[in-house]
């Protein structure tokens, strides 16, 4: 009998990609369920034959009902940073009570797990969820995902080709990785065995600095893209004067400082092994976006 798989965050980018990879790899739609809050936003999934289960991270009983009969649960980290710890602990508790056999969680790569981390606002909920999953007694797989290549355009800004890169990351490097590759790797783990009670380093096989990004953009576009790394204070002032909301400024500054401190620089990766091929490179991604 085939394992019954449930993907949370199924109307988001990562969830949709993972479901598509499962289907493309031959998993029957009848064996895949999608957790959604609003069925109207999942009409495309319904048309593909995916089972829709209505659930809300803030409503424990809805999660408990949605997780009934599920063997493998892919818990895609939520986007509500303020309430994410409580919400995801609800999901882990409900999974245990419902008898889920295996939880897979999209966590993140990091070195500093203390409150001194520049991205502590983001990190703590992941750390809390990792610990709850390990303490639950359920078989688990934790994906320590690096920064997405897909966030680079947000860091670079809309006028990067005209104005260059202005971002406070210093000479720090990160093993930026394609969300598409992470989703495919998650699908591969969901449909195969021998991944119980493992943590995987989901990093690219190379680390890239913002100077590397600028040089790659210059080569791809046959132009000159410069990189300037301002202080956090100067950067914040420039964004504030441009009308960027304060919460976004704080997030960008935090990520810039984390990159600068080497939080996302890695020397190991399990991603190539899980994919069965080389992950998409920085150059591959930039060509897709800027050519």
UniProtKB/TrEMBL annotation:
It comes from the Bacteria. Residues 2-285 form the NmrA-like domain. InterPro entries: NAD(P)-bd_dom_sf, NmrA-like, NmrA-type_oxidoreductase. Coiled coil: none annotated. This is SDR family oxidoreductase. It comes from Flavobacterium sufflavum. The lineage of its organism: Bacteria, Pseudomonadati, Bacteroidota, Flavobacteriia, Flavobacteriales.
């Amino acid at each position: 009998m085939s394992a019954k798989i449930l993907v949370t965050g199924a109307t988001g980018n990562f969830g949709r990609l993972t479901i598509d990879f499962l289907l493309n790899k031959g998993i029957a739609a009848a064996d895949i369920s999608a957790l959604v809050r609003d069925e109207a936003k999942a009409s495309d999934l319904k048309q593909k034959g995916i089972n829709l289960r209505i659930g809300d991270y803030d409503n424990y009983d809805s999660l408990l009902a949605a997780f009934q009969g599920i063997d493998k649960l892919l818990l895609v980290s939520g986007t509500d940073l303020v309430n994410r710890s409580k919400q995801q602990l609800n999901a882990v508790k409900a999974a245990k009570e419902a008898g889920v056999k295996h939880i897979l969680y999209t966590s993140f790569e990091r070195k500093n797990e203390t409150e001194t981390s520049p991205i502590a606002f983001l990190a703590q909920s992941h750390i809390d969820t990792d610990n709850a999953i390990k303490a639950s007694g359920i078989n688990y797989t934790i994906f320590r995902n690096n920064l997405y290549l897909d966030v680079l355009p947000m860091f670079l800004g809309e006028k990067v080709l005209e104005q260059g890169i202005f971002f406070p990351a210093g000479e720090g490097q990160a093993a930026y990785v394609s969300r598409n590759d992470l989703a495919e790797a998650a699908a591969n783990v969901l449909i195969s065995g021998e991944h119980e009670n493992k943590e995987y380093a989901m990093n690219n096989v190379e680390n890239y600095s913002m100077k590397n990004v600028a040089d790659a953009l210059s080569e791809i576009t046959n132009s000159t893209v410069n990189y300037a790394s301002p202080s956090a204070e100067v950067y914040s002032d420039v964004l504030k004067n441009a009308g960027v909301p304060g919460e976004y400024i704080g997030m960008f500054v935090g990520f810039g400082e984390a990159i600068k401190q080497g939080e996302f620089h890695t020397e190991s990766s399990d991603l190539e092994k899980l994919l069965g091929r080389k992950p998409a490179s920085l150059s591959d991604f930039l060509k897709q976006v800027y050519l």
